[in-house]
Amino acid sequence: MDTPTDDKLASLKTLSTVIYALYALSLFSGVTAIVAIVLNYIKLDDAKGTWLESHFRWQIRTFWWGLVWFVLGGLTWIILIGWIVLGVACIWFIYRIAKGWLNLNDGKPMVM
Length: 112
What we know:
This protein is mostly helical. The protein has helices spanning about 5-25, 30-45, 55-75, 80-105. The longest helix has 25 residues, at about 80-105.
């Protein structure tokens, strides 16, 4: 396996920043989350073995668990429990984006 160059790491860090932004924008337009998850999977192999791999995995898990909770909340909103589920899911999603983005900015890997 090749050792990643500084340029490659900088490129992956920039891409990870863009992906966090796409996830944040998905709170207003869900389409950006689809773009983000596709980018995550396309570039995951490039990030393997680097500290940025943890961010890609964090983003992927955030997408899939967020999808589960948002769908569950959407299916149950009519019985009012869904409003609570959607509210908690939204707060959780924002937390995951903020925590990841801050750690990325500080050059720290995500601890799963």
